[in-house]
Amino acid sequence: MHEFHSLLKEWETFALLLGTAAATLAGLTFIAVTMGQRTATRQRLPILRAHLDPALLALLLTLILSAALLMPTLTRQVFGLGLILTGVAALGYMAAVFRSMYTRGVRGWDVADWTWYAVAPVVSGALLIVSGELALSSQSRAALTMAGLTLLLLLSMGVRNAWDLVTFTLLITAPNDQGDDTGHDPGTPPLN
Question: Domain spans of the chain?
Answer without folding.
Answer: 2-171
